[in-house]
């Protein structure tokens, strides 16, 4: 009958010496100490070390992770984002056009950067740097809408990696990351009026508003017939009209 394994059970064994202090058949071969524990799923996990101190430190770290909910099995250390993307694709549903857009964004912006990167190595700073550097095929920054949609898909993929039933990671590297508005193409070439120009515009508006109006006629239109008249050219800087408050 198999021995029941209780999650949290742990110990460090000396592989070179038996309980009576006598050398074992492994004495002098490989690493001397092995740390072992039973994970939350009832699986025994072990790792060998040169010193008992190192073995105990690793064991303590794994135990603490289990107690705080941050434990991830050692065999998940090498799982790449590319593997997680495949799991994510398997669960996708939706209209063909939507799925086609998802594929284009993931294949064009996410996989080129993260396909071969172990998920556990991705940090928030990595994500922020990647997000700021997203480019179109022409080498120009992607639009804000594209950046937001691509980041949304990355977060969905990370959610798969954090599935509590089989977690690859327990810390979300996308948490707190914000999508910044894309810079204007060619730079910001907007021009703003100077204080003097604003004052001049206000005087012109007040001057026009102070002119007598003929019932039934628009005073803000250019003449369209011989009977219509327009104001003579005015030097707005000389107009002595109060500026509207």
Describe it.
This protein is mainly alpha-helical and 245 residues long. The protein has helices at residues 52-68, 81-90, 96-114, 124-132, 144-161, 195-210; strands spanning 10-14, 33-38, 44-49. It has a 3-stranded antiparallel β-sheet, with helices on one face. The longest helix has 19 residues, at 96-114. The protein is elongated. It starts with 9 loop residues before the first strand and ends in a 35-residue tail after the last helix.
Query: Given the C-alpha coordinates, what overall shape results?
Result: elongated
Radius of gyration: 35 Å
**Class by SSE composition:** mainly alpha
Q: Between the first and last Cα atoms, what is the distance in angstroms?
A: 93 Å
Count of extended strands: 3
Q: Give the strand line-up of the largest sheet.
A: 1-2-3
Per DSSP, the total helix count is: 6
Q: Extract low-pLDDT stretches.
A: 219-230
Strand content: 5-15%
Q: What letter string, H or E per element, gives the SSE order? A: EEEHHHHHH
Largest sheet: 3 strands, antiparallel
Helix fraction, binned, reads 25-40%
State mean pLDDT (0 to 100 scale): 82
Give the secondary structure arrangement, pairings included.
Layout: E1 10-14, E2 33-38, E3 44-49, H1 52-68, H2 81-90, H3 96-114, H4 124-132, H5 144-161, H6 195-210
Antiparallel strand pairs: 1-2, 2-3
Helix pairs in contact: 2-5, 3-5
């Amino acid at each position: 009958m198999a021995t029941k394994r209780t999650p949290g059970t742990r110990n460090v064994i000396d592989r070179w010496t038996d309980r009576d202090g006598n050398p074992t058949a492994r004495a002098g071969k490989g690493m001397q100490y092995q740390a072992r524990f039973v994970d939350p799923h009832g699986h025994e996990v072990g790792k060998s070390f040169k010193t008992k101190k190192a073995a105990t430190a690793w064991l303590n770290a794994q135990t603490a992770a289990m107690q705080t909910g941050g434990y991830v099995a050692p065999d998940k250390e090498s799982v790449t984002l590319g593997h997680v993307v495949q799991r994510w694709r398997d669960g996708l549903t939706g209209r063909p056009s939507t799925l086609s857009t998802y594929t284009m964004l993931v294949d064009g912006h996410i996989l080129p950067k993260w396909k071969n990167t172990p998920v556990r190595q991705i940090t928030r700073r990595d994500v922020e740097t990647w997000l700021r550097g997203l480019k179109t095929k022409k080498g120009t920054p992607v639009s804000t809408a594209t950046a937001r949609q691509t980041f949304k898909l990355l977060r969905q993929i990370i959610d798969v990696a954090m599935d509590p039933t089989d977690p690859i990671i327990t810390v979300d590297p996308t948490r707190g990351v914000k999508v910044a508005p894309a810079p204007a193409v060619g730079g910001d070439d907007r021009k703003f009026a100077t204080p003097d120009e604003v004052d001049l515009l206000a005087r012109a508006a007040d001057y026009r508003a102070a002119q007598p109006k003929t019932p039934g006629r628009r005073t803000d239109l250019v003449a369209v017939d011989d009977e219509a008249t327009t104001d003579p050219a005015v030097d707005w800087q000389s107009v002595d009209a109060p500026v509207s408050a």
